[in-house]
Design a protein that fits this description.
single chain; mainly alpha; two-stranded parallel sheet; 12 helices; 9 strands; flat
Length: 395
């Protein structure tokens, strides 16, 4: 069948690694003999299997899942990432954990894209103000970008190693985030530099088929027509964020807690329902990010759960401290002569003062242990005397 279409020889022949022998050996032997050709194919590419819970996916085992079924739970980009995060020649086990890793990777990179877009919107892109002298930090960040380019090219040339490519991009994103956080407090983030990083990553993702439309930076935000959702709504969101910033500033000056609470409600409850995340910053404009609504709802629930956990832990510590204080207070009220008499599982006989003389087995107490008990007795005697003295003073 292959020769009927490609002729007496071909460059690449592919198949699963289980077809290496005898299937492909047999195919090669027959074809070369038939065509009297010692190079029927130049290269064999044997891919790894796709498994589910460690078993090969197959109709006979009835453990297969279709792409359409996967796309009901995950996006096409997330599915592509799941494959790209593994070597094409290795086995890929499809599972919830595999897809969570892909979603986590997507979120990490997308957060970086959204941050870069924020600086592209809020910092000058033309004129004298757009050009700033590079410091040691910019030179180092640019060197990281160039090293990443070299490493990614080498990885793609080395058996199309997409896993190393994505891990290199993850490291580059991490380095970029460190640079941004270091510089943003002084407003010295170099707009063009981080745009260059984001544009390069976007280019690689476009090569991998993860960008559905022409995009200079980041993943497209969706929408139809000539403009995507981000282009359409961002002017309105910028106006809303500026207005909210001014309201918060005035509310702080007059200490209007109710107004500040409403601003927080807009950020935490209202806008997430619309797929918008606001991030308040001290020395820069509010960061606006368009994020999937389901993800924001999940983040909100996780935040509430964390706050509830902290509240319960605080209450538990408070109750524990109160119980400890109550136990100490109750301890003070015990006369020293009664301190050991209730511990019948440890002691069987006591002297006139209430000090144990024999253990539970009827044997005399060792001198060393008696010495320890004496110290405990004396400490209780002091506590009890102090308590009785405080009671007398209150009367």
């Amino acid at each position: 069948m292959a020769s009927a279409i490609l002729g007496q020889s071909m460059d690449i022949h592919s198949g699963g690694y289980d077809l290496k022998f005898p299937h492909h050996d047999n195919e090669l032997a027959q074809s070369e003999a038939y065509y009297d050709n010692d190079a029927w194919t130049q290269y064999f590419l044997h891919s790894g299997h796709l498994t589910i819970a460690g078993c090969k996916m197959s109709k006979s085992l009835k453990n297969f899942i279709t792409i359409q079924e996967v796309l009901q739970k995950h996006t096409a980009r997330q599915l592509r990432l799941a494959f790209l995060l593994h070597s094409w020649k290795d086995t890929l086990d499809y599972s919830d954990n595999t897809m969570e890793l892909a979603k986590s990777y997507e979120k990490t990179v997308n957060e970086f894209f959204l941050t870069v877009k924020h600086f592209m919107r809020t910092t000058p892109g033309t004129g004298v103000e757009a050009f700033t002298k590079w410091s040691k930090d910019e030179l180092e960040m640019n060197e990281n970008l160039e090293k990443a380019k070299v490493a990614i090219h080498a990885a793609l040339c080395d058996n199309i190693d997409t896993r190393t490519v994505l891990e290199t991009i993850r490291e580059l994103v991490s380095q970029s985030n460190v640079y941004i956080e270091k510089q943003r407090s002084t407003g010295a983030v170099n707009r063009q530099l981080i745009k260059n990083v984001a544009a390069y990553i976007t280019k690689i993702f476009d090569v991998f088929g993860m960008i559905s439309k022409e995009e200079s930076v980041g993943f497209p935000s969706g929408g139809s027509g000539s403009a995507d959702l981000e282009t359409l709504v961002m002017p309105y969101l910028n106006s809303l964020a500026d207005f909210r910033d001014n309201v918060r500033k005035s509310a702080r000056e007059i200490k209007a807690g109710d107004i500040l609470a409403e601003c927080d409600k807009l950020r935490d409850d209202v806008l997430p329902n619309l797929g918008v995340r606001l991030e308040d910053k001290e020395n820069e404009a509010t960061v606006i990010k368009l994020v999937d609504r389901a993800e924001l709802m999940k983040e909100r629930e996780e935040k509430k759960a964390l706050e509830e956990k902290k509240r319960l832990e605080k209450e538990a510590k408070k109750a524990e401290a109160a119980a400890k204080a109550a136990a100490l207070e109750a301890q003070k009220k015990i006369p020293p002569g009664d301190l050991f008499k209730n511990e019948t599982d440890k002691y069987s006989k006591f002297d006139d003062k209430g000090m144990p003389t024999h253990n539970a087995e009827g044997e005399e107490m060792p001198k060393a242990q008696l010495k320890k008990l004496q110290k405990i007795y004396q400490a209780q005697e002091k506590k009890y005397n102090d308590y009785m003295k405080s009671q007398s003073n209150e009367q």
